[in-house]
Amino acid sequence: MKIDRQFLINVNPLNSLFGRIFLGFWATVLILIGITILFTYQFNKLNKVQNPDKNNLTVLETLHSEFERMKKSNLVWQIKQLQRTTKAYKIILKDLNTGEFIHDRKLPEGLDLNDLNLLMLEPSPLKIRVNNYLIVGPKLVIRNNQAYQLVFVTKLSPRAGFFYALAQVPVWLQISICLFLTSISCWFIARTITRPILKLRKSTQIFALGNLSHRLEVDQYRNDELGYLANDFNIMAEKLESLIELHKRLLANVSHELRTPLTRLELSLAIALKKPTDCSLQLQRIEVELHKLDNMLSNVLKLARLESDAMSLDRSEFNLSNLILDICYSASIEAQDKSIKIQQQIETEIICYADVILINSAIENILRNAIKYTPPHSKIDVELSQSNEFFKVTILDSGNGLNEEELERIFLPFYRTETSRATGSDGTGLGLAIAQKAIQKHQGFITATNQQGSGLKVMITLPKSENTLAE
Known about the structure:
Blueprint: H1 5-11, H2 17-46, E1 49-50, H3 54-69, H4 75-85, E2 90-95, E3 101-102, H5 113-120, E4 126-130, E5 133-143, E6 146-155, H6 158-167, H7 171-208, H8 225-274, H9 280-307, E7 316-319, H10 320-336, E8 341-346, E9 351-354, H11 356-373, E10 379-386, E11 390-396, H12 404-409, H13 418-422, H14 431-441, E12 445-451, E13 455-463
Helix pairs in contact: 2-7, 7-8, 8-9, 9-14, 10-11, 11-14
């Protein structure tokens, strides 16, 4: 039967992150367990016979003293008494003349007389482990001119007994237990690591299918790298969604704004074709509409470049004070048509290091917007100042201001206020959006607020740290 190659790839654990983490942990744990077992086995072989510790010697000395002190007592009776009052589980005496072992009952199961005989031959006390018991001795006891060798037996602790019983389990069963226990722990570790990655993969697939509002659920208590990755994914998704929505809205607005001048062009062209001998007025209208189209498309392209992260600033040193004075002078011609006075309060000799074209465009757009919505026979205040950290350009008109909803939206592309739509203004709603993007490119910001008793106040704030020659 031919096995599908893709099936082999899928079942191979090394082809998945989970499988590699799991097998890596498991192999590491098994190697450590194997080394530990090897060394433990070797040490156990060496340590089966040991020197007695201080407590063992104390018990042995106590028993020796008691046997020599009570020389007339019956040995078996005395053994029973001492077993009740000391830590000795069993006390065993060997008569050196007859070789007979003396104890209260039969020896504990598992104790071999051969082991006791070998221990009795030692010149100094030792401690040996036999099954679940420790035997300590020998110690020479003299009673009534009769020599005995004394040893005592203690039980191993339950924990030591457990490990001893475990050691008696067949090797294949020991290996199976190790494999089972380590596989559970390694599976849990690998699962903990890969589960959020699988959730992230699923979220990216949902996002790729077009569900831009989908977000990855983030455990608020997870503060490791995977938690940071999940947060970064949500931030990325948020930005992508906003950018795509912005471009959709931009496309829709461009289509809408193009329709009106194209309709006028089509109408003017139709009239001119009907009266080819008297079409100068229609040709003038066509020229005006073409200029509007050219201006709008130019602003759209400018906004698109400003929104692009790839755009770099063409910084240079220039006199910001003089730049604003020039902008005010150019705008004053348009302002004079409405008898609007531009009052200037410009701090002199302010040197800025920025993209002069973008800064000029931003300030000019805001000032011309103020002229457009300021009623005739009024004034506009233009102010330039600086602090230790910022340059500030303030433009205050004498209009009616805006409501709260309009204040939040006036910097959106193609947004036009109710006033501009009602008065039939020929603006496209791109001027303030371009101004905002230009200032943001310099790490600055624009704010618009209603000034009580005056009108709309627009403030441009540019950080000096982003505009110094040191940069």
